[in-house]
Design a protein that fits this description.
There is one protein chain. The chain is an alpha/beta fold and about 260 residues long. It has one domain: 2-Layer Sandwich (BirA Bifunctional Protein, domain 2), CATH 3.30.930. It has 8 helices and 11 strands. It has an 8-stranded mixed sheet, with helices on both faces. The chain is globular, with a radius of gyration of 17 Å.
């Protein structure tokens, strides 16, 4: 995917496909370290797409809730590692049938570009899923888990993708989780976690790509997303460097819930 010479007509975007499924807190810390280094000008804009294992991603808002310890216990009892994620919102879930995205970009005025980043990533994912045959749309489904105006849904009926942001001086992180398969696992796990957090929601709004178009592999969805990226950017395959991984190691504990 990396060409011999930079095409000046397209901006360069580093593409990383590396994940850390057996170390979810570290994987989240890697995303934070990447954001920190991009914001400092040490690395260029980077789009990371990877395959997590079973983790329950809590926000700082969840951590402040009275039922947080019970929610962490419920997630752990169901085989999901609890982590504290970068973005806001409410509890969301990753499993072997999901794709995770972490896009870090430099930004002189991060707050001013919040809307544009949400829109760009949501519309990119909509185009990728539409190309696979999904009736994908941008917008919150009433009653969805981790509600957000920039969720990607199917038919205005079920949530397929959640998107969130984290802003720091000099840069922004935009993260997403695409549920490709096994919406039942998402639904049943979040029922227990949301009950502990005392959050109201409608489990029937939980969906997956394969609910819409039949059995679908992670490869197919990942390739569709990258194909859309390649229309706008010159993609350069990259790996995490030692400095990023070392910084992540110092941040890992901050992404473990105190009750875990």
């Amino acid at each position: 995917m990396q060409g011999n010479a930079h095409n000046p007509q397209k901006p360069l975007l580093r593409l990383i496909r590396e994940g850390f499924p057996t170390r979810p807190a570290y994987g989240t810390a890697v995303s934070e370290a990447l954001l920190t280094r991009v914001a400092a000008g040490e690395l260029g804009a980077t789009f990371r797409i990877h395959r997590p294992a079973r983790e329950l991603a809590f926000s700082k808002q969840d951590r402040a809730a009275p039922g947080f310890a019970a929610a962490v216990a419920a997630a752990s009892a169901l085989g999901f590692d609890p982590v504290v994620r970068l973005a806001g919102g409410r509890a969301a879930l990753f499993h072997e049938g999901t794709l995770a995205i972490a896009w870090s970009s430099p930004a002189e005025r991060p707050v001013a570009g919040t809307h544009d980043r949400f829109r760009w990533l949501a519309e990119l994912i909509v185009r990728a899923l539409t190309g696979l045959g999904v009736d994908a749309r941008v917008g919150e489904v009433p009653g969805e888990y981790c509600p957000g105006a920039w969720s990607v849904n199917a038919r205005d009926a079920t949530k397929l993708v959640g998107i969130g942001q984290r802003l720091i001086r000099g840069g922004a992180h935009c993260g997403a989780v695409i549920v490709v398969s096994d919406s039942t696992l998402v639904r049943e796990t979040l029922e227990a976690v949301y009950a502990a957090l005392e959050l109201e929601w409608d489990p029937a709004t939980t969906g997956a790509v394969d609910d819409e178009i039949g059995p679908t592999s992670l490869d197919v969805v990942e390739d569709a997303v990258i194909a859309e990226l390649a229309k706008e950017f010159e993609l350069a395959d990259a790996e995490f460097d030692a400095s990023t991984l070392d910084l992540a190691a110092t941040l890992e504990d901050s992404h473990r819930p105190p009750a875990a």
